[in-house]
Specification:
Distance between the termini: 11 Å
Largest sheet: 3 strands, antiparallel
Order of helices and strands: EHEE
Length: 57
């Protein structure tokens, strides 16, 4: 039987953002998601600024 561990990460964003701020936030999100992926985490859901990951043990 496969076993998983789960991680929940809050990635808050500002409500009012300029295009430049949006681009910077997108790059920051991308770096974080790539870091989690490199650690073996798989994004399984996103809801209300919370990102849910799992990885097989």
């Amino acid at each position: 039987m496969k076993k998983y561990e789960y991680k929940v990460v809050l990635m808050a964003t500002k409500t009012a953002m300029t295009v430049k701020n949006m681009e910077a936030a997108a790059k920051e999100f991308e770096q974080e998601l790539n870091r989690f992926g490199a650690e073996g985490w798989e994004l399984i859901q996103r809801e209300d600024g919370m990102f849910f990951f799992k990885r097989e043990l």
